[in-house]
Design brief:
By secondary structure, the chain is an alpha+beta fold. The chain has one domain: Fumarylacetoacetate hydrolase, domain 2. The protein is 25% helix and 28% strand. The protein is built from six helices and twelve strands. The chain has helices at 10-26, 42-58, 73-79, 130-136, 158-163, 211-224; strands at residues 63-69, 85-90, 100-102, 110-119, 137-147, 168-173, 189-194, 197-203, 234-236, 244-245, 251-256, 260-267. The model has no long low-confidence stretch (mean pLDDT 97). Bound molecules: 2-oxoadipic acid (OOG) and magnesium ion.
Length: 268
């Protein structure tokens, strides 16, 4: 994020936040925000996201962590956006392993495999490094994120997707938790299966060379927003492969080397 200060007025930020919040609640697609506000900046996107976070917390949602997004080449190519971003995660987005996940409250869900970090120490940017992240990490575990852009056709630009909280919708963490010093997080392989067929595969180095790099990036963006990463946070480092569309009836299993697997099925 180069420009920290929003360019839009407070009224416009609130208006855009209400639009995104309504689309999330009703699970209906809306045009990307830059159609009406072509000059909207990335900082404006984060101002809308921060307002959304404030409102959800005021409604009783609990902030449990953060996510990095657009951190792999596969994701950047798929979405046509070349800059990583961050979003927040709440307790209401979490789903248990092996559960049935409803799609009736989602627009056009997609799944992606991610390495999740659980922090034992707080991290503050700027200047946070991969090594700082590894030292502050309690353990890692495998996760599947279910993203759901609120924008028509799953098409957006960076300011719009940041305002939409990085398409965050649901996530499932599980498998086997491991300490980072027992693993090589670069060569860690992942295979995603849908209905028994392999639909995507990759290695975690696809995420900025090393997934801890994505967490460092996230901490440094948090610093620009005047925030930090508290101890105990659950943080997803970004999709390793492109995201895969799912519909009711689909069963998904993500198999991670060393970390076990995470499964779920999708229902109406
Ligand atoms: C934006 C969210 C990106 C990831 O892991 O890269 C993301 C999107 O693709 O809709 O969560
Ligand atoms: Mg993701």
């Amino acid at each position: 994020m180069s420009e920290v200060k929003p360019t839009l007025s407070r009224e416009d930020i609130v208006r855009l936040c209400e639009r995104v919040e309504g689309a999330q609640r009703r699970a209906c697609a809306i045009p990307k925000l830059t159609d009406e506000y072509p000059a909207m900046s990335i900082a404006d996107g984060y101002a809308v996201q921060s307002e959304l976070r404030r409102r959800l917390i005021a409604q009783g949602h609990r902030l449990i962590g953060w996510k990095a997004g657009l951190t792999s080449k596969a994701k950047m190519v798929q979405m046509g956006v070349s800059v990583p971003s961050i979003g927040f995660l709440t307790d209401r987005m979490a789903r248990p392993e092996n559960s049935a996940i409803s799609t009736s409250d989602l627009v056009h869900p997609r799944v992606e495999c991610e390495v999740a970090f659980v922090m034992k120490k707080a991290l503050h940017g700027p200047g946070c490094t991969r090594q700082d992240v590894l030292t502050a990490t309690d353990y890692v575990l495998p996760a599947v994120e279910i993203i759901d852009s609120r924008f028509a056709g799953f098409k957006f630009d960076l300011p719009s997707v940041v305002a939409d909280n990085g398409s965050s919708a649901r996530f499932v963490a599980g498998g086997r938790a491991r300490y980072v010093d027992e693993l090589d997080l670069r060569t860690l392989g992942v295979v995603m299966e849908k209905n028994g067929e392999i639909v995507a595969l990759g290695a975690a180095a696809a995420v900025l060379g090393h997934p801890a790099e994505a967490i460092a990036m996230l901490v440094n963006i948090l610093a620009e927003l005047g925030e930090h990463l508290p101890a105990g946070s659950f943080v997803m480092s970004g999709g390793i492969t492109e995201a895969i569309a799912v519909k009711p009836g689909d069963c998904v299993t993500a198999r991670f080397q060393e970390l076990g697997s995470v499964s779920m099925r999708f229902v109406d």
